[in-house]
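Q: Predict the assembly, please.
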Amino acid sequence: MTTRSVSVSGSRPRVRWTYRAVGGFALATMALTACSSGDSDDSSKESDSGSSSKKPSGTVTVFAAASLKESFTALGKTFEKEHPGTKVSFNFGGSDALAASITSGAPADVFAAASPKTMKTVTDAKDAKGTPATFVRNQLEIATLPGNPKKIATLKDLTRSGLKVALCAKEVPCGSAAQKALDASKLKLTPVSYEQDVKGALTKVQLKEVDASVVYKTDVKAAGGKVAGVEFPESEQAINDYPIALLKNAPNAEAATAFIDLVKSAQGQKVLGEAGFLKP
Amino acid sequence: MTGAAEVLDGGSRRRSGTPRFRAGVPLPLLLPALGGLVFLVLPLVALLVRAPWRSLPDQLTSVAVWQALRLSLITATAATAVALVLGVPLAWLLARARFPGRRLVRALVTLPLVLPPVVGGVALLLALGRNGIVGRWLDSAFGITLPFTTAGVVIAEAFVAMPFLVISVEGTLRAADPRYEEAATTLGASRFTAFRRVTLPMVAPGVAAGAVLAWARALGEFGATITFAGNFPGRTQTMPLSVYLALQSDPAAAIALSLVLLAVSIAVLAGLRDRWMAAS
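A: Predicted assembly structure:
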């Protein structure tokens, strides 16, 4: 281990340093851009060879609403079993946030939204291929503490004083649906919090921080015994359609189409039905 | 590019006792430095370029924006005050006191730095929530519930921001010469008087720098806040929360809101920076 000291000759005129620095910086930038463009060429070649084989392979990237988490994860595993060599990677979140990232160019193959409105964001931006199809519907339910200690039976009970209720923010589908149901029954409800997505509203009940929240049937089911569900008739007024679409810039359109077919198939519908979704 | 040449010429200040360096910045340092600068500034430039300047006045005259901004400034300042009152003594303990398990304590103190903010929020709920370890007792004995209140926002922000202050102050204390304190105590001052009259003035710049860091971190805090304090306009909806929700429905509004937050924090940081830079 001998260390060689590298001496920087400092006797050069200073201006030369500047030129060299700027030139070097420009060169480095050019080299970087050259690299990245080279990469993109490679990837396009790969996708060409993938489409020529006409069999789903590679990774499918699915952006899906938070409420689809359990059922889609199960369907993803089924898909990977049926098509060896494929991998389904999910990005679950609030539909609007997902739509926003898709319209800003996130590389996704499939978008499954919790409301037609959020899907419209994507179709308006011409980011979807073909027309989105409704694959399931979801109904609201009141989630309350196990055993329902507060004796909540109707939507009106949520407006009782002293009850802590969490709602989804009006900006997200579960929030606008809850608002629709409240408006239909002419109720005024002031929650303690407008949650950022439906899982947030559910978590607050699971942790017993609020007495109740308005979430989807599917969320109550997914929470198992940690929350109790209370159905209310006004939820008929605000049933959410869930559209699914192939995205225009899908890096892996082949496999993405196969995945959408699985979701729409009898097998897919069975899994979604078990999770508490209604048939379209 | 004459400006750049002048900048690169800097650093030939001669101080007594320091060896004289050759002027100029070595290339291996300059390139990554420029790259780092571009990396940090480019996203901000993008925000400014894409900002909806035309509709900006309309966006910023809404009551909700000022409500959120006011709440953000108040809670961030309160959280910084909490961090100062609790954090400076804690930093002194870590820097000056000898006790077993000091390393472990330091690691625990810095934990909120690496904890995902949402997990921090859940941890706070489990500790101080209505059903939490301490919160349950607070609720039954005093009727105090912290989640979904403005106090809850302050707690969430202080939890995330305090480690910055503690680390900063502890570093300054370690660098400060303890002999001054020792001299003070040999002259008859108590440990606390020595801390108050000698140590604290000596480390004031470090405390100020730490406080500014903590304040800035508290101002941008999102995850722990929305999890612990929820989201209710005027009570717990700080600026980052309203930015996030605006992004769901109206990205242009979200950018406008972000600009306000940026402008305010830059104004405050720039205003303070000279003060504490001069002190150090």
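Residues 128 and 272 of chain B are 34 Å apart (CA to CA). Confidence is low (pLDDT under 50) at residues 1-17 of chain B.
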